[in-house]
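Question: does this match?
>
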Amino acid sequence: MSIAQERRKAVTATAERIVSIIGDAPTVDRLEQAKPHLMALAERADLFPAADFPLPTGDVTDRTYLIYDNAEGAALYAITAVPGMTYRPHDHGGSWAMIAAVQGQEKHDLYLADPAAPGTPILKETLTCEPGTAVSLTPEGIHAIEGVGTEPLLHLHFYGTRFEDQAERTEYDLAAGKTDIFRMEAFGFIVDKR
């Protein structure tokens, strides 16, 4: 069996297990129950060789590879990035999210929406997602991402709704205290590696 075939088998089994745990109620408890399964897949670094998931080059800081999706719209991506990559605070348009590290470190600032000041969510916690850990967000979750450390990143990002189907996503400009609508065209392109 080739690495691609072995990866497809492991990814599909893991994704289906996670989707069955979360079901149609992505609660904190269900996300916590599902996290170890994504972490176990991320431990299989042999399934994600650099030749199949190259790092970005030039001015590009990250690359996104679709490795699984299903008829209900859930999608799992392998994302490579260079240290210093950043995404300002954003939500996922009503989708749950789960991130586990194959290699490298991502700092996640986790926020709560502030109904009194919609443009300035409240920082709740900062976590570092690195091998052996995972981060999850409920559909209301807001987070900012930064690639930290010196090692290139390869992380698995799993969503209840694929990127292109996520409802209107909000980005937060904390300095200006305002929100912007995330445009898919600003995201770049997604390479299909299913």
